[in-house]
Specification:
Elements (H helix, E strand, L loop, with lengths): L1 E4 L4 E4 L5 E11 H7 L2 H7 L2 H8 L4 H19 L12 E5 L6 E5 L1 H9 L2 E10 L3 E10 L3
Antiparallel strand pairs: 1-2, 3-7, 4-5, 6-7
Helix pairs in contact: 3-4
């Protein structure tokens, strides 16, 4: 909604404000992560679609590391972890093939916590180099 103040001739825009509930960030050392990355760990951490995408990449371990960082950052934004019943497969990183962007889908305990905390939107961004992978996750509540 736009409001015009006749005295000053300024136009004010009534903004819809979302409440940031949490921010999570994580960084992964790719060299040490790659040393630990075997089929057993991949099975424990990632869902089939995530494995399929990462394995399709030339430097697949960098993509696995970035997704692992995103899962850890999501745990932080939810304020919970493995001791709270979360599992890495409760957080799915979904790649949009058209735009190249990623998003998060929460399952199981992560989905329950999302609803309990009244999280409306979750934003994720990842990046990686040959040495490090980093992810940031931001959770927002519905507008007030």
């Amino acid at each position: 909604m736009f409001l015009i103040n006749e005295d000053t001739r300024y136009i004010f825009h009534e903004a819809q404000v979302n409440l940031v509930l949490g921010i999570g960030i994580d960084i992964v050392d790719i060299v040490s992560f790659r040393r630990r990355l075997d089929n057993e760990l991949i099975e424990e951490l990632f869902l089939p679609a995530e494995v399929e995408y990462c394995r399709s990449q030339v430097r697949y371990w960098e993509n696995f590391a970035a997704r692992f960082a995103a899962k850890e950052a999501t745990f932080k934004v939810l304020g919970a972890g493995l001791s709270s019943g979360l599992r890495f497969k409760d957080v799915e990183i979904v790649k949009c093939l058209e735009s190249g962007s990623i998003s998060l889908m929460l399952h199981g305990k992560a989905f329950v916590i999302q609803n309990e905390k009244k999280i409306d939107k979750i934003f994720v961004s990842v990046s990686h180099t040959k040495k490090n992978a980093i992810a940031i996750v931001i959770a927002e509540a519905k507008p007030v």
